[in-house]
Amino acid sequence: MSQPLLKNEKYYTYEDFLSWDTEERIEIIDGVTFAFAAPLIKHQRVSMKLIKHLESFLDGKKCELFHAPTNVKIKVESMKDNVVQPDLFIVCDKTKFTDHAYNGVPELIIEILSPSTASYDCIKKMQLYLKAEVPEYWIVDPETHRIYVFNIENDKYVDIVYEKNNILESNIFSGCTIKLSDIFEEDYMEA
User: Fold this and answer.
1) 164 lies in a domain?
2) Domains in the chain: how many in total?
3) Is residue 109 part of a domain?
4) 48 assigned to some structural domain
5) CATH code at position 55
6) Which residues contact 76 (CB under 8 A, 6 or more apart)?
7) Could you tell me the residue range of the domain that residue 55 belongs to?
8) CB 143 within 8 Å of CB 113
9) What's this model's pTM, rounded to 2 decimal places?
10) Which among 7, 97, 112, 148 has most CB atoms closer than 10 A?
11) Alpha-carbon span 95 to 103, nearest angstrom
12) Residue 148, φ and ψ in degrees, nearest 5
């Protein structure tokens, strides 16, 4: 569940983040912490299918795909510390890694919506990613079988909506296409 962890209304730093000994998934946006429950199975199935397609596309290329819980430390001049763990992200500049995080702006960030994180991904994270000038941001909705692809135009994100029968085309990775019907198979029956 996404909820602010306001401890004494203190703003937290990246150094605070590194000192926490917890199994909980935590992010910091503009110094405020947010904690998350484990993702739903539907979320994980979609994530694995996207990983499969993106890894295949990136094979032999200089860029690399990562998945949560990999830390991404994004510095934005007008904000306090930001540490996020996108569901998936692609980077092409591998010099920005430390042992604990990627310190920079990924070329592509993908967030897969869960009922508890939808507004956080669509508002808080989108605002951060736009300020940081993330070139392409995908919001994947397993419930509606849609992927929203956001690209920056005139300092704003402009989106293209892809539905289950569409083929998604990345604007920043030429030749990267994904057939949405491969990602959103019929819902699995519960045992």
Assistant:
1) yes
2) 1
3) yes
4) yes
5) 3.90.1570.10
6) 82, 128, 131, 132
7) 38-183
8) yes
9) 0.90
10) 112
11) 9
12) -100, 120
